[in-house]
Amino acid sequence: MGLKFHPKYCSYFPLLVKALENVPGDVLELGAGLHSTFFLHWMCLDQNRMLYTYDNDPRFYEIANQCAADTHRVILVDDWDDAPIEREWGIVLVDQKPAIRRKDDIRRLADYAQCMIIHDSQGLQSHHYHYEEIRPLFRYKYSYMKVRPHTMAVSNFIDVRKWG
Length: 164
Prior knowledge:
This protein has one domain (about 5-164): Vaccinia Virus protein VP39 (Rossmann fold, 3-Layer(aba) Sandwich).
């Protein structure tokens, strides 16, 4: 399939685990992944919560769709603007393509998500992600920087700084 694999692609796991342990409610995954989708599928099943995975890449959609179940909806989107994501969420994992698009969906979800886990948050990549535009939207922010790429947890409802 030509998909690249590297352990650094799942550097968000520590924050995602903390979110799953501390934040109730449905989970939204923006951007399916070889790690995140299967991990979230099993964790949400175990915790009896709904998981919604959205992706705009047919290759990743096909991989993620193997997980489709009563507790896991997998949706292929043509245009992120048309994705019906504006509703209440417990956790949102932001890791979709194109990279520049992430800030727009983070902005859309700022008042809907109890907590967002945002991958690739190191400053060196700001020309790809422009996360500096969305940081002021959140009351609480915590950056996990033990490994690269960094991951950020943001919330207007939960003090994610305590996860550090």
